[in-house]
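Fold it.
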Amino acid sequence: MQRPGTPLSALRASTSGQAFRQCMFDHWGLMSFDPLEVGSQESILVTHIRKRKGLKEQMTPLSEFEDKL
């Protein structure tokens, strides 16, 4: 059942009822250790996620994102 004024109702109205919501964010969770610390459980988790997403396993240094003007 759709309730007027909700995001789903607005989505369906904007697309003439053709679009459906597929996913919804659930929650954030805090990591108890530093994911940048080599060998920590969080570091291993981050490495697996980056590998699964096709990213480089090592995090890109911030200096590569800075403007070099």
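The helical segments are 7-14, 41-52.
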